Amino acid sequence: MHPVLKLVTQRVALGILLLLAVSVLIFAGTQILPGDVAQAILGQQATPQALANLRAQMGLNQPAYIRYFQWLFGVLHGDLGKSLANGQDIATEIGGRLANTLFLAGVSAAIIAPLSVLLGLVSALYEGRWPDKVLSAITLATVSLPEFLLGYILMFFLAVEYPIAPSVSTVFDSMSFWEKLHAVTLPVMVLVLVSVGHTMRMTRAAILNVMQSAYIETAELKGLRPFRIIWRHAFPNAISPIVNVLMVDLAYLVVGVVVTEVVFVYPGMGQYLVDHVAKRDVPVVQAVGLIFAAVYIGLNVVADVVSILANPRLRHPK
Amino acid sequence: MTRIPLSALIGLAITAAYFLAAIFAPLIAPYGFADVVGGVWDPSSAKFLLGTDSIGRDLLSRMIYGGRTTIAIATAATVLSFTTGSILGFTAAVIGGWVDQVLSRTVDLLMSIPSLIFALVVLSVMPVTVVTLILVMGLLDSTRVFRLARAVAVDITVMDFVEAARLRGEGRMWIIFREILPNALSPLVAEMGMRFIFQVLLLSTLSFLGLGVQPPMADWGGIVKSNKDGIVYGIPAALYPAIAIALLAISVNLVADWVLTRTSSLKGGRGG
Amino acid sequence: MADLILDIRNLKIEATAYPPGEPPQDIVIVDGVSLTLEKGKVLGLIGESGAGKSTIGLSAMSYGRGGVRLTGGEVRLGGQEIRAAGPRALRAIRGDRVTYVAQSAAAAFNPAKRLMDQVIETSLQHGLSTRAEAEKRAVMLFAKLGLPNPESFGNRYPHQVSGGQLQRAMTAMALCPKPDLVIFDEPTTALDVTTQIDVLAAIKEAIRDTGVAALYITHDLAVVAQVSDDILVLRHGKMVEKGSADQIINAPREAYTKALVSVRQIEHPAKPATSPVVLSVDHVTARYRGTHFDVLKDVTVELRQGQTLAVVGESGSGKSTLARVITGLLPPRSGRIRFDGRDLTPAFANRTRDDLRELQMIYQMADVAMNPRHTVGTIIGRPLEFYFGLKGEGKRRRVQELLDEIEMGKGFIDRYPAELSGGQKQRVCIARALAAKPKLIICDEVTSALDPLVADGILKLLLNLQKVEGVAYLFITHDLATVKAIADSIAVMYRGEVVRYGTKTEVLAPPFDDYTDLLLSSVPEMRLGWLEEVIAHRRMEAAGN
Lengths: 318, 272, 545
What we know:
The structure holds three protein chains of three kinds.
Chain A: H1 3-31, H2 37-42, H3 48-58, H4 64-76, H5 90-125, H6 130-143, H7 147-161, H8 177-183, H9 185-211, H10 214-221, H11 226-263, H12 269-278, H13 282-310, H14 312-315
Chain B: H1 6-23, H2 25-28, H3 59-95, H4 97-111, H5 115-123, H6 130-157, H7 160-168, H8 172-208, H9 220-227, H10 240-267
Helix pairs in contact in B: 1-3, 1-10, 3-4, 3-6, 3-8, 3-9, 4-6, 5-6, 6-8, 8-9, 8-10, 9-10
Chain C: E1 4-17, E2 25-38, E3 42-46, H1 53-59, E4 69-77, E5 80-81, H2 87-93, E6 98-101, H3 105-108, H4 115-125, H5 131-144, H6 150-153, H7 163-175, E7 181-185, H8 193-210, E8 213-218, H9 221-227, E9 230-235, E10 238-244, H10 245-250, H11 255-261, E11 277-286, E12 296-304, E13 308-312, H12 319-327, E14 334-339, E15 342-343, H13 353-358, E16 359-362, H14 366-369, H15 376-388, H16 392-405, H17 422-435, E17 440-444, H18 452-469, E18 472-477, H19 480-486, E19 489-494, E20 497-503, H20 504-507, H21 514-522, H22 530-544
Parallel strand pairs in C: 3-8, 3-9, 6-7, 7-8, 13-18, 13-19, 16-17, 17-18
Antiparallel strand pairs in C: 1-2, 1-4, 4-5, 9-10, 11-12, 11-14, 14-15, 19-20
């Protein structure tokens, strides 16, 4: 087998293995810690008899590993269980919300990726001069604020004082794409602001690292034009670290999305998760936690695969 | 090395001011943190410098007490994550072998879920108390400290001077505390600043989501949560914590940057 | 003069230093250097590290590396002043009229592009020739430089060829656009000595056949004597002496040049093999964990008290592995090691404290062999405290005695390693080893990272200490001059095996085995015409067989 194919297969297999381990962890996290689901539903004052009845009814008397396999089997067949809070089927409830969350994250990613690479390139080109310093000061400020605060600051200024976008991002299925886009203006801005800073800094570091290589000096000493040096000599070597940074940071959007959705009352997965954590609705928390973890792990696998594919040593073995 | 750059000095001064305000909160705050002393969302005045909050408590006092809670919990979580993370990280690097494998793979696993999501999962079944918060935040974050401490220590253990100490017959304690630790201290201290800020942000986020510090105790995230509805009426009460957090984060960053550059300028070991 | 390619007058080069905790300051790194170079001639620039030789070389392209600035004097290339030329004018010169061969071709080639694309890039970008013409010339140069399969060589990626081949490919890249001048910056320094001689011969032939002028930069006077017409000796950024290669080698005028010429001529008659054996390595075979081949194969050597065994070999010969096996860092698969009449436990962790004490080690990189956060006093004092329980004033007195022994004297005891020069650092490491009162010190390439004159000082110190302390050395090195200077007996290693072993006189006298012959004849000698003789001799032998 070609070594690249082998490495990629290995990486994907590792990702799947990791996801399985994470599912164990999430299950264990919600089952083994003090206070079980029955306690959570009935509260601290419940009588022992009521607790025992509910436990028996929910199958909690079975050993944990059997319940885990039952849960996993269900998950693999698209059955995420029923919500404790309202008895609804979780998979059905998640459907539309997942689409909304993906829409929000997708729009943000579509802005973050080109913007942060562009800004990273600019600040690398002007290293130590004013464009670099201004960008670095702005990003230091944006990465120092949690998403929800940035959300309210934008809401205060852009929805209340100088209204250009709605303060509550309600979306319906019947809305057109452009209406939806207008609705999510502020949450997208929040996600872009919190992510671009880090991604841009890492891109800048990746480019500067490549620009310090001896082969860039060779290119300069060949009397090549600066554009050709960057495009033909630096870029092919910088693409792997940049994509890597991008993927890891996009994976981190998962966290930003949860909080941002709560701020703007956006009907997505994050909002759903937080509501049900407060209600101690364990099956929902498990399901949503697993989906977020899957996205996170998936993007990290993509990042690794890209760096494998971009490595000339692996593509052209001896 | 005796000269501290201005930016680091400013950072140090502001950070120190935060900690002093946190320690002496009862002396500084004009009112009690739970006392209803005015109307709903009174504007700022001589009596209430920052105005009052959603149920008429003095916002400045809430901010000062909130800082006390936030900083205390974040500090405790940072200390927990640092002791656990760096001791395990150094151990993994020095012993190596299966001990390292088990620890490193466990950390990989824990880090494959974003901290906030993991915290939410755990907090959905655990009672939300200050102790739980510190434990969850501290232990989750210790994975990052573990990675850094292990990486730094591995870089140092492969150095010839550590090999020389081993060949001399030195014990594990000497190698960890006399050979590795003095060289690993600066990057760890710089990272400590970053981790502290991360804890402040995480705690605020959890409180904002209603899963952190519980009312009537005040913390910065909680202040945002209870005053967020004012935003749409143009009442900026919920934004004060933003300023407080941003200023603290930037100050700590400035100090951490300085500690890091000091490290890298010593690393070359060539003096000039 | 129409033939004058390069004319540098009174060149001054400055850089900005950033000492930690202090304001940045400008430092002069080259001052008042003048040189001329005619068409078809080779000028050698020689000096120790910090002499500014690479910086001067790059000034011929008006290029300052890492913030280095050409602040004064003139750099004329074919009559055109280029020191203060603008970027557009410089782009026209670089790659077209002047080209550059770097020390590490492995780093200087772009890992993501095929060699051919990189070799002909300059010719195409400067519009010097069509792709077909450039590729034809590249293939011709590949063949001339002795690269395998010149037709298809260019299709490979840099990581797919060896270090010696990359260095030749870089020479081809420099010669491809038919420049007036090529700057060779230590092109053979990173290579093994048996590879170096071939690359050196190939470069010399290519220079002669293409008729370019060349600046040849190196720290090795014996190497530069083989390729240069003229030599310029530099020290601390200033000119020491300038003359023909013949004059510099055979009749140096300045004291510094004389020292450089006579370096590594320490005479050391081999001691008779009468003292008792202190170390015997007996049929030792070893491999690293997780690998499938032996890096040491059935190695047997002996070392007598108060004597020196030099283990010599090139990279990959297993000589450093032998040190790791003896110190117990890598337990052998088979064979045993006897030390001072007793069997040594394979793994160091199970050895007695006395075994550890009596067997000390000195490393190649003194920089990383000392904890940067410990003072010299702590570094040398720790073995005293650890093995002999010395404390306080007694320990400090003994440390000072040791410092006197390594000729460093007062005022060093409270300094940190970062405040010492390279030679001083290595001396402190020697003192640390001596502090344990060892019977045997393993010296792993201890002079390789040092400038020749400093290395000489260290070798003399080691020889003196051996007389006084009666300690034995196992001296691991790739440098035959060092071997001749210090050894009583020699083991030549090649691919994990000892191919030749005996007293110094036996090993260095013919008849030789093939590898030792190749190794010995590849070491550059400090005389003109050596390279031609060796190459001619080898061709004759090849023809004869």
